[in-house]
Design goal:
Cathepsin B, Chain A; alpha+beta; 11 helices; eight-stranded mixed sheet; four-stranded antiparallel sheet; single chain
């Protein structure tokens, strides 16, 4: 393999997927991480999942420009969100629509995913000393300020904000609060009134990325559901095993471990509850009406010849 192909993230990602598809042994990620410009020392450092995801998307978009696949990634992974300030007593609104590739949701103060979405689109009232200046015609006005989703992508990436700055301790801390997320949820309530509703906005869980440990040290692994129906699998370094529903959901909600009698420890008990070290950090949902399109089986005829000519490389490097 040439140095030029090693520097091409699109090509190395193709090779990685090909190896995962055809190899019966563990597959290394050294080629892919090298294409990012990461040295050996970076491979063995803890990397942020969201940062890696965005870097990967940026590299893929760059390599797809000018090709037939130029708009494939935005079509699958990118949605649209509107930031607005809307006057209450006069017909005036200032707004802008932007693309998003993932949604960062607050864990602190929210019990579950749906409450986080409500928190995300929560409307702020601008009144009193904080009125909105709506130009020379309308002057100062009471207004509502907020964000609303215009459209969600076929594959929705949700980052759960498990790490926050603690003012009292003057440091970043991991949020170990219990936080639930469903297998299926309806995203329609978080869309603007004029959004396209020609088909349901129901999403099905297909990926749970887990962080186990604290801020400074930890381990990432993932639960993935590769098919429309069937099992989730746990992908943990070079081990892949079937996972139960409880392992995917309940055990990654965070919070306290249950006690022996099956109940959480009472606040009146002297001993503090023992918090789980592992909790979901990123969730991947797929729109149910697009599942067949997104999870299309890959046949040997779909694999480009330039990939089939290379035999899978031996496992090398640490998984990201």
């Amino acid at each position: 393999m040439t140095d030029e192909s090693m520097a091409n993230s699109a090509y190395t990602l193709q090779r990685l997927f090909y190896q995962l598809q055809t190899s019966n042994t563990a597959v290394g990620t050294a080629e892919l991480t090298k294409s990012f410009g990461w040295e050996t020392r970076h491979i063995f450092e803890q990397q942020d999942v969201q940062e890696l995801s965005r870097k990967l998307m940026e590299r893929m978009e760059e390599k797809m420009k000018g090709t037939q696949a130029e708009n494939v990634l935005p079509h699958i992974f990118s949605g649209k969100i509107k930031t607005y300030i809307s006057c209450i007593n006069v017909s005036y609104e200032s707004s802008r629509i932007e693309d998003f590739w993932d949604v960062q949701l607050n864990v602190s103060g929210n019990k579950d995913l749906l409450q986080s979405f409500e928190d995300y689109i929560n409307v702020e009232k601008m009144d009193g000393d904080n009125k909105y200046y709506a130009g020379e015609v309308h002057k100062l006005q009471d207004a509502n300020k907020g964000v609303i989703f215009v459209g969600f992508p076929d594959v929705l990436h949700l980052q759960l904000k498990r790490f926050e700055y603690d003012i009292a301790k003057d440091t970043m801390m991991k949020v170990n609060d219990r936080y639930e997320f469903p297998e299926v949820f309806d995203a329609a309530p978080y869309l603007s009134e004029d959004s396209d509703r020609s088909e349901p906005w129901t999403y099905q869980l297909h990926g749970v990325l887990v962080h186990s440990g604290d801020l400074n040290a930890g381990h990432y692994y993932a639960f993935l559901k590769p098919n429309k129906d069937g099992w989730f699998y746990r992908y943990d370094d070079d081990k892949v095993t079937k996972a139960t529903r409880r392992e995917v959901l309940e055990e990654n909600f965070g919070g306290a471990f249950p006690t022996l009698n099956g109940h959480l420890r009472s606040p009146l008990q002297k001993k503090s509850p023992v918090l789980r070290p592992n909790s979901a950090y990123m969730l991947v949902y797929i729109r149910q009406s697009r599942l067949d399109k997104i999870l299309t089986p890959v046949t040997r005829l779909d694999i480009p010849a330039h990939l089939r000519t290379f035999s899978p490389c031996p496992a090398a490097g640490a998984p990201v």
